[in-house]
Amino acid sequence: MSTLNLDLLSDYLDGDQNEYGLDFAATHGFLCAIAVGPQFDQWLSELFEGNQKKVPTAIIEQISAWLDQIRQNLANEEGIEFPFEIEEADTESSLGDWSVGFVDAMFLNEDAWFTPEHEEQLVDLTLPIMVFSGIDEEDPQMESFRRNGQLMDELAEEIPDNLNELYLMYHTPH
């Protein structure tokens, strides 16, 4: 198991050589969704659009180590550490990018996420992430959220606890 090197990952994911994957913040969001949500085995292929064999082995190992660390933190009830400040209350921020990655991963496994038993709670817990992702740009309610700076700050602060709740929802017996 390689030691997690976020600088190496950041340099690669935010660099020009990353032709197929998401940027650093969006990759973290993607991995968080994989960690907190229902099991999804095709995550690596989806993360790199089926081109993971063209990504350096060291980067794949680092991404797997990052996912393992996120899962370990959740299992140990330590929560998820963000590799950037989440107080940036804007869709044009690292948190916005992170949210896009999270939503991408969630919708790749949509049927498993949106089960009748979880749907109502899931909508509530993912609302802040959906707002920051910038999707539903045509939705007047989402736009009104995005124009309210104080509300955006409050939504940003909810995300870490909501991730813990999502993890418990999918990873503890009912």
Describe the structure.
With 174 residues, the chain is mainly alpha-helical. The protein has one domain (6-171): Four Helix Bundle (Hemerythrin (Met), subunit A) (Up-down Bundle), CATH 1.20.120.740. It has nine helices and no strands. α1 (6-13) packs across α4 (57-75). The longest helix is centred in the C-terminal third of the chain and has 23 residues, at 149-171. The mean pLDDT is 92.
The SSE order reads HHHHHHHHH
This entry's quaternary arrangement is: single chain
Shape: globular
Give the amount of beta strand, in percent: under 5%
CATH class: Mainly Alpha
Structural class: mainly alpha
Main sheet overview: none
Nearest-integer average pLDDT = 92
Find the count of extended strands (DSSP E, 2+ residues): 0
Architecture (CATH level 2) name: Up-down Bundle
The CATH topology assignment is: Four Helix Bundle (Hemerythrin (Met), subunit A)
Rounded to the nearest angstrom, the radius of gyration is: 16 Å
How far is the N terminus from the C terminus?
Answer: 33 Å
Helicity, as a percent range: 55-70%
The CATH superfamily label reads YgfB uncharacterised protein family PF03695
* Number of helical stretches of at least 4 residues: 9
The tally of domains stands at 1
Question: Segments where pLDDT lies below 50 for 5+ residues?
Answer: none
